[in-house]
Specification:
Structural class of chain A: mainly alpha
Distance between the termini of chain A: 14 Å
Order of helices and strands of chain B: HHEEHEEHEHHEEHHHHEHEEEEHH
Distance between the termini of chain B: 47 Å
Strand content of chain B: 5-15%
CATH topology of the domain at 33-172 and 250-381 in chain B: Alkaline Phosphatase, subunit A
Largest interface: A-B, 57 and 62 residues
Helix content of chain A: 40-55%
Strand order of the largest sheet of chain A: 1-2
CATH class of the domain at 33-172 and 250-381 in chain B: Alpha Beta
Oligomer: heterodimer
Number of strands of chain B: 12
Order of helices and strands of chain A: HHHHHHHHHHHEEEEHHHHHEHHEHHHH
Structural class of chain B: alpha/beta
CATH architecture of the domain at 33-172 and 250-381 in chain B: 3-Layer(aba) Sandwich
Shape of chain A: globular
Mean pLDDT of chain A: 94
């Protein structure tokens, strides 16, 4: 039961009560099989038509700013859709989780909803496929090309931005290449560009067809060759596996586990699905040291709460407000290195929002929080007072009916927390005293979800 | 009842229970206070400190330049935007240093990225997840156990104040903090003796307990002193006033962080920028008055920066676009070189229409870290910066 909870916390975003009831007695292999099977059906996100670029260029500065603002809003709405999908019982949680990992790995700020949606669909297509194909697809992704200035990367005037990050952050990591390797790699990616409508285009006119020397090899390399050469190094498998391990297993790396995983990842020619299956089927994945050791990211927390409480926000931007105030806005990572994660999520401000969130949602406690202003904003941000949301607690009430307080506490902590809470039973007795049964259950739920332990998975 | 329970679990001796006794405050400080004022959005430095003798400035900004007769002339070359007139007395009294041409190599023109570079003190192609003041808290700040040792007057905490193991504290005002901490269950949890938690869980419990004890401490401190000076009645003015009151009440916070946004003036810049500069200058004037009245000016250093300046040439919408190097202000009673620290920008030698930086902002940081905060800039900035003759 604890294993199932751990698996769904890491490979997905937790379980709804219905799912928990159905799956808690499953064996690990049964659950892993289902997770991977569901992940095969990836229905893409719909992407709006690209904005009219020619029209945009002719606009006044004022209208341009207006258009950019509209696009930002559309991107934000996409992020909301995505979080809802993560929490939905109708979509594969593992595919969304894996895509979220790659979204943070290939961190990219998308300026339009078309670019954001297309990139996400690209990631989803390859999320559990071949890492080689994923890297190539990202190298040809218009949003990334723009974000890392490959538009400006041309013969005789190379721009090294993409080539540098490709090696430093996306594949092999620092210390495994020289500055000269970056220069030569940049030449190989010249001409990998995007059209105004946001499609990949190879502009042969500005591509450097000359000979390049990269990682000690010389040839008329293009971008695909460069990626192949980088992936021919075992260091690349190790770098990626370390990152996956820190994200899915434990921030503290067990070198022996990583060594074994990297060997087989390399031997499988970078098959992501095989790697993940191996992790989830390893006994050590379920060791006590790995369970409940990870601080949920803001998106984990939100998607998980949506699953637990079936929340419907009145204002569709509520989930955008929460992403921002908690410090993780999808499609808008802080920089190309992605979200640093773990303890960096938490300071006094974000912790108080996290811990008060159940009270905001279940007892409409006032939020009273003001976001920092956006750089381009011309008006003051308003203080958000309340998060109006409908929650459906009927499955929980049904489940708790007739149970004693202690039984309820046990059941709900078991369902919602990675480990037994240290808060004493008397605390829960105190907050539920004199309440009607349903109100007591609701307060109990609120109490358990407000524990710092609920922040962990 | 609740309060005493919190105070008892707090590591802070409740010295704040003592009444405000001004005579005890005078020159009583053992530590220096640093105040950072961030102008977000990229303040146009050329219309802030105006090169009123420069023909290129007037040629490049036919409708945006500030006329020579309007400029508050401070030297034979440079003067202030008239909206900054409250700063003139600070300048005359030797309380203001203006450092020109501050920037960094390979400047980035994205707000987000450039602000990150200023916050983390990184190279422009380097990505750090901790801020320069956060790393100061991590490594150099012995004995500063209180969570509010570095306080940002805001609901959100900036990257500059986030270290690896220690972080600054965010509070827009004590009432707001009180509302956030007004949760009986959390209050109770904050008072629990620390359990044998897993490391990350223990970290969450510690921040929770710190938040409650700092909330108590800061709201008591905030009641101690009421400023009678005239701050702008804007959010920024209120925040600045809050800082002045906390400093005057001898709060054991040593670093304060305040922001003023809206400087991204692509369109019809003049009114927007001058409205903000006026707020800034009036706020600083009142702030300095408060410090003076409490004889704290010598113990306080205020640094004002923006993530970049703007292009020399104005755009087609009577605004300016993102640029590079910019001026930076230091205000305080212990300036080594009040007035202009260095020459104004050389508009005759530009890099594709942008100013070329002469002073690395990290040299300013190094000076503050080494001389003011008595930290080790080399360790914090991970590189050796000479520092400047500023303080």
């Amino acid at each position: 039961m604890d294993k199932i909870k751990h698996l769904y916390g890491r490979a997905g975003f937790g379980l709804s009560l219905k799912e928990w009831e159905r799956k808690q007695q499953w064996s690990v292999s049964q659950a892993v099989d289902e997770l991977f099977k569901q992940a095969q059906t990836a229905s893409p996100f719909s992407t709006p038509a690209p904005p009219d670029v020619a029209g945009y260029l002719q606009m006044s500065e004022m209208n341009k700013a207006e258009t950019r603002k509209k696009e930002r809003r559309l991107v934000v709405l996409q992020s909301v859709d995505w979080i809802k999908r993560m929490s939905s019982e109708n979509y594969s949680p593992f595919l969304e989780r894996m895509s979220l990992f790659w979204h943070g790995h290939f961190a990219c700020q998308s300026k339009t909803s078309t670019l954001a949606g297309n990139q996400l669909n690209t990631i989803r297509t390859h999320a559990l496929g071949s890492f080689r194909e994923l890297v190539l697809a990202i190298a040809q992704d218009p949003s990334m090309i723009r974000f890392l200035n490959n538009q400006q990367n041309r013969k005789q005037k190379p721009n090294e931005n993409f080539a540098r990050e490709l090696m430093e952050l996306f594949t092999i990591g620092r210390g495994n290449y020289t500055e000269n390797d970056i220069k030569e790699a940049a030449r190989a990616f010249t001409g990998w560009s995007s059209t105004p409508k946001g499609k990949f285009i190879f502009r042969s006119g500005i591509h450097d067809y000359g000979r390049k020397t990269f990682f000690g090899k010389t040839g008329r390399f293009d971008g695909t060759d460069i990626i192949d050469i980088i992936l021919s190094k075992e260091e690349t498998a190790r770098f990626i596996v370390r990152k996956i391990y820190r994200y899915f297993v434990n921030e503290q790396i067990n070198e022996r586990h990583v060594h074994d995983l990297a060997k087989s990842f390399y031997a499988s020619d970078y098959n992501i699905e095989k790697l993940m299956r191996k992790i989830f089927l390893s006994d050590w994945f379920y060791d006590k040291i790995n369970r409940g050791s990870k601080i949920k990211s803001p998106v984990d927390l939100l998607a998980g709460m949506l699953k637990n409480l079936h929340i419907e926000f009145q204002n569709e931007l509520a989930l955008a407000f929460l992403q921002r105030s908690l410090g993780q806005s999808l499609f808008n990572p802080p920089n190309v290195a992605g979200w640093p994660g773990n303890k960096s999520w938490v300071d006094n401000s974000t912790l108080m929002i996290r811990l008060n969130l159940p009270a905001y949602l279940l007892s409409s406690k006032e939020v009273n929080f003001k976001l920092k202003e956006e750089f381009e904003a011309r008006k003051q941000n308003k203080i958000t007072k309340r998060l109006s949301a409908a929650v459906d607690l009927s499955p929980i009430f049904k489940q708790m009916k007739g149970k004693s307080l202690k039984e309820q506490v046990d059941y709900l902590s078991n369902y919602l927390l990675p480990a037994k809470p240290q808060a004493p039973l008397q605390l829960f007795e105190r907050i539920t005293r004199g309440q009607s049964p349903e109100q007591a259950t609701k307060l109990l739920l609120l109490g358990i979800m407000s524990l710092p332990e609920y922040q962990m998975c | 009842m609740q309060k005493s329970a919190i105070a008892s679990t707090s590591i802070l001796v409740p010295a704040f229970l003592k009444a405000y006794q001004p005579e005890q405050l005078y020159n009583s400080r053992s530590g220096k206070i640093l105040v950072i004022v961030q102008l977000s959005g990229g303040n146009d430095g050329l219309n802030t400190v105006v090169p009123f003798q420069n023909d290129i400035y007037y040629q490049q900004r036919p409708t945006l330049a500030i006329g020579k007769s309007e400029v508050i002339q401070l030297s034979d070359q440079l003067g202030l935007n008239p909206a900054l007139s409250p700063l003139q007395s600070l300048y005359d009294d030797g309380l203001l240093s203006i450092v020109n041409n501050v920037g960094y190599p390979n400047p980035d023109r994205s707000h987000f990225r450039s602000m990150d570079i200023w916050h983390t003190a990184s190279e422009s192609d380097e990505y750090l997840s901790t801020g320069w003041l956060g790393r100061y808290l991590d490594s150099s700040c012995q004995g500063c156990q209180a969570a509010h040792h570095a306080l940002e007057v805001d609901d959100e905490l900036s990257l500059a104040l986030k270290g690896q193991t220690k972080k600054g504290f965010a509070m827009s005002n004590p009432d707001q903090l009180k509302r956030q901490t007004n949760n009986q269950l959390l209050k109770h949890l904050a008072q629990q003796p620390s359990h044998d938690h897993e490391e990350n869980v223990a970290y969450l419990y510690k921040i929770l307990a710190d938040t409650y004890s700092s909330a108590d401490y800061l709201s008591e401190k905030a009641k101690t002193y009421r400023s009678k000076n005239n701050y702008p009645s804007t959010a920024f003015g209120k925040r600045l006033k809050q800082v002045a009151e906390l400093i005057s009440a001898d709060t054991d916070t040593r670093i304060y962080y305040v922001s003023l946004s809206g400087f991204d003036t692509h369109v019809n810049q003049k009114n927007q920028q001058e409205r903000l500069l006026k707020q800034y200058a009036e706020g600083m004037k009142a702030f300095v008055q408060d410090l003076k009245q409490n004889r704290l000016l010598d113990d306080t250093l205020i640094m004002t920066f923006s993530e970049f300046g703007r292009r020399v040439k104005q755009n087609a919408s009577r605004g300016t676009d993102h640029g590079t190097a910019n001026n930076l202000f230091l205000i305080g009673g212990k300036l080594q070189r009040p007035g202009f620290y260095n020459e104004g920008p050389d508009l005759g030698s530009l890099d594709k229409g942008d100013l070329i930086y002469k002073v690395d902002f990290r040299d300013v940081y190094a000076t503050i870290l080494d001389k003011w905060l008595k930290g080790s800039s080399q360790q914090i900035l991970n590189k050796n910066f000479q520092g400047l003759q500023l303080i």
